[in-house]
Amino acid sequence: GGAGRTVAVNRVAFRNYEVLETLEAGISLTGTEVKAIRDGKLNLRDGYIRPSRNFKSCFLHNVHVGKHATAGAYFQHEERRVRPLLMHKSQALKWAQQTDRAPGMTIVPLKAYFNKDNKLKLEIALVRGKNVRDKRATIQE
């Protein structure tokens, strides 16, 4: 038990985007991915989330999970594979429609952490790209 433990934070996202809404999503992982993430080999920096074509689910793209040291090459995961997110269909649909309709709106991972049941969770956010003026203000803050 005990409280969760943060394993990765996407600082770039906070700089580049205005966060409109956030929610917690689970993520479908392989065994070597879980072990590598426990070793701190997760990088959310270039990650983004895309809804499936039918808008019923979302997928995490371009997130790098380093190889796990002890697993043989044969059992290794693909470092940047597209990973299914576990979230409510209604929520996936709502965000998918919003990103579909509004240019400049996207979904990104903000944070990854193990919850008290030791399951990896992502804090994901519906965001809008900041313009240059907004970015300068953020940097000054």
UniProtKB/TrEMBL annotation:
Cellular component GO terms held in the UniProt record: cytosol
GO biological process: trans-translation-dependent protein tagging
Keyword line: Cytoplasm, RNA-binding
Coiled coil stretches, renumbered: none
Molecular function terms, GO-annotated: RNA binding
Family annotation (PROSITE patterns): SSRP
Alphabetical list of InterPro entries matching this protein: SmpB, SsrA-bd_prot, SsrA-bd_prot_CS
Pfam families, A to Z: SmpB (PF01668)
Record protein name field: SsrA-binding protein
